[in-house]
Amino acid sequence: MPELPEVEVVRRGLADHVLDRTVARVDVGHLRSVRRHLPGPDDFAARLIGRRIHAARRRGKYLWLEFTDPGGSPDSPRGPAAGDDAVLAHLGMSGQMLVADPPRPDEAHLRVRITFDDDGPELRFVDQRTFGGLSVHPLADAAGGGLVPEPVAHIARDPMDPAFSPDDAVAALRRRRTEVKRALLDQTVVSGIGNIYADEALWRARLHGTRPTAALTRAQGRAVLDAAAEVMSEALAQGGTSFDALYVNVNGDSGYFDRSLNVYGQADRACRRCGTPIRRDPFMNRSSYTCPRCQPRPRTRRA
DNA sequence: AGACTGACCTGAACGC
DNA sequence: TGCGTTCAGGTCAGTC
Known about the structure:
303 residues, alpha+beta, N-terminal domain of MutM-like DNA repair proteins, Helicase, Ruva Protein, domain 3, five-stranded antiparallel β-sheet, 6 helices, 22% strand, DNA-binding
């Protein structure tokens, strides 16, 4: 499940169910799900087997599991260091991480199964569309600070990161030469925001997504980023957003935030603020939802 | 360098 | 019923 709140729901579930457990076996059922692990599925499995999981972390929509330091002792853990391996997961559009008791029948789109050396539940990566995937990478220093798996090093911190700097994010947003919604979706500007929460944040900030970032005031930039942080925390508190059974926590349950969406998916429904019908417009092979009254389009620039 | 367009997949929902 | 079209919450390589 895609955006930050949903990924955080999964991270918490993993933290509850797989920490301090040791991997016994890995079954890769679909090559595409480990395509980002360039050395291949056997190497992927070999790098997990025998390792004990120490932490479940997240930045933006990326999720990863760190292992217990192989050289350290339980009494004196040295903590994660650059170069240590971590299992990186991205859920793509339809990925799920499920914690399942082994007798439970396999899901139709089960791609990777991770079994532990205890009698506890296994971890199943289920992904209908296979846009997501798992891979192992060394931890590296991220551009914006922090220790993250190498492929994540280029993305910005997300608004729920304690070290997130709103001022830096506003500056990054205004530095772009594009439209504000595109910039919100750019994970190198601020991470974790996808199509739903971009639309919700823009509605809260009363900005139209096609406004040029270059013309945004600092206050407007700040407002839309604050709105994004706010809407994502509210969504997280409700277990995330879900339209269907594709977006679920590790137990297979859906969140309830879809009931709180103000614009996303609300075409032709009355805006909760002013009553004007919400409109839907094509956007990058997808859709954007706006209230035409609360979020007036910017004046088109003269040629 | 930075912005933008496809391409990557499967399945559900809809119209004819 | 069945077939075709459209749509879906993400990212990245390639192009301009």
